[in-house]
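Priority: medium. Attachment 1 of 2:
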């Protein structure tokens, strides 16, 4: 190591001895198990904490869906083992209606917020921002640690609601009043609903702490030469995601606080003219539609909070593994920006059947269909990046291509639902379930898997098992289509969602076999996810060790750090950036890292 080095942002001349002392103090000084793995302020460790917490939630959320698919596929069968596990919730070996609704509610809440928001953004924003921008850590490592621990607290509150005598919240993941505002309405509206609201409030605090940190770090802590137009698309996507979260989550929080007032303080924000039994409640003047406005003002940006990070990860992985520059870099950034703006202007398309003024409905139809344009630009650019590429089909690359497939097919059905006239028939049917699961849930999961397989060597210094990864991909990809594609037909036939048992309806009896088929596939796909979890944890300890610093031949800065980067990421100076992140297949070379000076040949940007 040279005698003169810039360490941790200080540019004085320091002797070699001091450099080692400085590194020593950073890596080993008072690093107990607690400060290293529990209350860590190292962004890489916090990213791993988010990832593993998110995975635990994903298993729980997936298990819930397996349980209610069991009910939907086999409505007239009994499974005595269910009663052994769930007691009164599965009397006589059959899931009870109120427990079924609680399962549906918690499944949605857990996967939308705790896995695909906390797990996806929390993991990759934390792990990649400092490494790809060229920073020692986040702008505020302490707030970063707090954001994880608020997420953890929210998880504990939400999880503990599953063990209440009256059961967890059961008002749908959208917790619409009056069901959620009246404790007497059902068991699932009692203490479980309070736990749900408190858990979500803690979750919002976590998201805001994280989001502000991400934005500040990206804008202020980029290394020398890293202009905004040289940032990888992953970082752009995370930046816009954080902006969406910071602007929309407070609206949900205010909506939930008013809901708490209605529940316990006798207010009437959402309640009016309600009878329970024969008794009229004193509440007057509120409107449950107000809650829907507040909820969906977050709820629609939330869809993009989930999908944008996945888009960023997929763009990066595709370019690396197609050995080609990403096609239309500025168009990609522009479309991310357009999606961010439009995300705030489309929320009422969730409310076409609430008695919304038809003229206002037509405005939201226009804006909803407009958001298809930036999405289509992104799809075109991904396909063009793949076109004539020298493609390496790594597990990450397969998941990236699978993401694009799901995003296209799921997005197309959104055009049906964005039309307010068609939506009158399709609203609250299985068609909706199929649409948003494919375009948002499954797509985001494929993007997340793509990120995990690609950056696993950087996170843990080992590789995941490829054979298991390929099985995981094909079962998940094919299974997702087999589960959700048939649901579109059920929805077109008018089959409502959230129903406990369809077997009593003559019109829906025809779908009995189809429902059994969907339920069976759902169980197989869930088993494949368990295999992924095994592969993940096994590989952390026993996977093939990474021996090269840059295993994928990638241009971005994280691959210039040591295989096991310490807290601070780079020993000595932070590398300087001379070019954009996508110089693949240029000047007769397979890849040219961002740190390589441009020299005589004409460089980009």
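Attachment 2 of 2:
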């Amino acid at each position: 190591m040279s005698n003169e080095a810039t360490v941790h942002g200080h540019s004085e001349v320091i002797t070699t001895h001091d450099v080692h002392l400085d590194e020593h103090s950073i890596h080993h000084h008072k690093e107990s198990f607690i400060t290293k793995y529990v209350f860590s302020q190292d962004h890489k460790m916090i990213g791993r904490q988010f990832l593993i917490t998110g995975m635990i939630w994903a298993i729980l959320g997936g298990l819930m869906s397996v349980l209610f698919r069991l009910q939907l596929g086999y409505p007239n069968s009994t499974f005595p083992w269910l009663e052994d596990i769930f007691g009164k919730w599965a009397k006589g070996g059959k899931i009870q209606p109120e427990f079924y609704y609680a399962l549906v509610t918690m499944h949605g809440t857990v996967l939308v917020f705790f896995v695909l928001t906390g797990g996806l953004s929390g993991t990759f924003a934390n792990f990649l921002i400092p490494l790809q921008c060229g920073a020692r850590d986040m702008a505020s490592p302490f707030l970063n640690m707090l954001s994880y621990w608020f997420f953890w607290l929210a998880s504990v509150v939400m999880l503990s609601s599953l063990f209440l005598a009256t059961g967890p919240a059961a008002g749908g993941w959208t917790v619409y009043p009056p069901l959620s505002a009246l404790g007497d309405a059902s068991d699932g509206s009692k203490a479980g609903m309070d736990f749900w609201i408190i858990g979500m409030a803690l979750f919002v605090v976590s998201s805001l702490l994280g989001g502000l940190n991400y934005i500040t770090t990206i804008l202020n802590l980029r290394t020398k030469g890293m202009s905004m137009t040289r940032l990888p698309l992953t970082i752009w996507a995370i930046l816009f995601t954080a902006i969406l979260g910071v602007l929309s989550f407070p609206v949900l929080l205010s909506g939930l606080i008013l809901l708490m007032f209605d529940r316990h303080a006798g207010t009437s924000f959402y309640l009016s003219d309600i009878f329970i039994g024969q008794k009229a409640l004193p509440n007057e003047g509120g409107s449950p539609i107000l809650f829907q406005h507040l909820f969906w003002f977050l709820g629609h940006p939330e869809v993009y909070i989930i999908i944008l990070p996945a888009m960023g990860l997929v763009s990066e992985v595709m370019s690396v593994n197609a050995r080609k520059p990403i096609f239309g870099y500025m168009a990609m950034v522009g479309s991310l920006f357009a999606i961010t703006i439009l995300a705030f202007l489309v929320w009422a398309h969730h409310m076409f059947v609430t008695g919304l003024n038809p003229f206002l409905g037509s405005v939201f139809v226009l804006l909803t269909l407009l958001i298809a344009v930036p999405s289509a630009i992104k799809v075109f650019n991904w396909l063009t990046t793949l076109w004539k590429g020298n493609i390496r089909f790594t597990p990450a690359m397969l998941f990236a291509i699978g993401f694009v497939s799901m995003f296209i097919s799921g997005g197309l059905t959104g055009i049906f639902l964005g039309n307010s006239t068609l939506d009158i028939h399709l609203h609250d049917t299985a068609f909706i379930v199929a649409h948003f699961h494919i375009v948002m849930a499954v797509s985001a999961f494929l993007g997340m898997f793509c990120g995990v397989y690609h950056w696993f060597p950087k996170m843990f210094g080992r590789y995941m098992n490829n054979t298991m990864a390929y099985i995981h991909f094909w079962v998940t990809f094919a299974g997702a289509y087999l589960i959700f594609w048939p649901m579109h037909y059920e929805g077109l036939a008018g089959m409502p969602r959230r129903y406990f048992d369809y077997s009593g309806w003559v019109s829906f009896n025809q779908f009995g076999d189809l429902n059994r088929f969907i339920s069976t596939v759902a169980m197989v796909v869930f088993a494949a996810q368990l295999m992924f979890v095994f592969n993940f944890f096994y590989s952390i300890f026993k996977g093939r060790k990474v021996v090269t610093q840059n295993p994928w031949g990638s241009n971005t800065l994280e691959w210039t750090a040591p295989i096991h980067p310490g807290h601070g990421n780079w020993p000595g100076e932070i590398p300087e950036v001379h070019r954009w992140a996508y110089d693949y297949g240029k000047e007769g070379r397979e890849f040219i890292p961002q740190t390589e000076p441009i020299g005589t040949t004409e460089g980009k940007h």
